[in-house]
User: Fold this.
Amino acid sequence: MFTSLAKKWFVLPVSVLVVAVIAMAGCPGTTGGGEGLSGSFNIIGSNTVTPLSSVWAEEFMKVHSGVSIAVSGPGSGAGIAALINGTTDICQASRLIKQKEIEEAQANGVEPYEIQVATDALSVVVHPSNPVSELTIVQLSAIYINQITNWKEVGGGDEPIVVISRDTNSGTHVFFKENVVQMKGLPAEDKSLEYGSKVLFLPSTKGGVDEVAKNPNAIFYPGLGYVTGAVKPLAIKRTADTPGVLPSVETALDGSYPIARPLLFYTNGEPTGVIKAFIDYCLSTEGQAKVTEVGYVPLP
Amino acid sequence: MLGQQVTVAIAEASPDKGLRRRWRIGEKFIEGWIFLSGLLAIVVLLGIIALLLKEGLPVFLYTPPWDFFLGTRWYPVSEPPTFGIMPFFVSTLWVTLVATAISVPVGVACAAYLAEVAPDKVRETVKPIIELLAGIPSVVMGFIGLMLLSPLVQSAFNLNTGLCGLSAGIMLSLMSLPIIVSVSEDALRAVPDEFRQASYALGATRWETIRHVCIPGALSGITAAVMLGVGRAIGETMTVLMVAGGALAVPVSPTEPMMPMTAAIASGIGNAVRGGLQYQALFAIGLILFILTLTVNVIADRVLERQRRKFAR
Assistant:
């Protein structure tokens, strides 16, 4: 009786264990093939860079079947934190690393190494039905600090503005704050300005674009790669006197679009081995062609 | 208990002392195993409390506790950072309030129907289905809220955006509903049948019996169910992160976009460097959240215990 009872109680967990072991053994068993490159690494960071890294990773893994790459995009800040904490191999970022973060990394024995992989024109989008078609940086700043709260103050209808931003994990959040909200490089620059308390902070760029597509009064700032036909990008004027410039690959390349920014990879020290091979691919003509496909601006 | 009975039965049936001793050893082993498992749960709990205290308390050296609780500005990535969690705390209260206001009446009514009115067959099919609702992943609920509910809420209340505390609260009410229905139904069914018979004998209708006999009889169990539902609503993260809108103002009405405490932790933790100020501040929020849900659960536990004693026979 004892033995039969024991059998019943142990057969299930043991069989589960066996299945799990077989399943796990199956994974690394697929290595080999390609050009002899193998290994696995992960890319964590910017939500903006994620669509690009994913395409690169897929293409790279197609050619080198022994390599496995995991891409995730919680935000640049999260990626840099992961680099500092040693939990990622490549950090993708849509803003420059801060001096404070470099110090924190060095204290942890991590030496951030910076590689620019593409450029992005940060677009400001509204609902297609919105009559407003251009804004100055100063107006944008006033909207994001909740000083301007109605579309009629910037030439639109008498409707309240629903201001949408990314959350603090996002490099776009920080880049937009420094360059637009605080008006970096303009006479009106004010480093004490912060996002207003009525601003909606959303956890993903896609979520923000979806909300603008549904909401006629919303405004949001996605990367160029996230702009779809369901939203309308605004022309941005550096000052009231300069002409409005629409975000595009051309205007970002010739420097006329005022809020363009680098998209970056950070590694711990100069990359080696399979990671170097991957980054070399990203920077190659073939890799840079993917940048245009995804909707960002390739390196010159 | 069962083990002991079996041992006795075997001991009586078989004079084989070797077998008996083997049983004793086996039983000692199992007893020890269960003891260790129980101990492990307590150790893990104490570990979590210790970790929360260790990581969370140092932020109070930078921001005094009163500024932390009553401050209305949360700018963790600015120089210098400011940490005030009043907006998150009030948001959590609003969202929980909306969720409770919807799920309690609906949940208790549903439980009363299942326990008192529905035929056995209906109950046996409906109750598992409602309990299945508890198994829907919260990210799916968040997605439904984002895509289906928020446009509805926006047009129904004529709001600027449907991403607000109200939408989040409605989604949360759906998530705490299964707990409330399931536990209340058990409580109602625990009310002894003699009570109902006596009520009918006095000429009360079924509705009067439910209202004046069954529900008051099961009140402590229903209260516990409500507390458990509230605990679920306070602690839920993914749904509120996706649906509540995430604005940093102290919300004065549930129709405003807001960021409850759980969403604040989830949206900030990826960005926080281990041991940094923001990291500590987020752990301090976690500590407050832990105390809040612990209080609710302890109350629920007490009330449930009282219910059990009431009908113990």
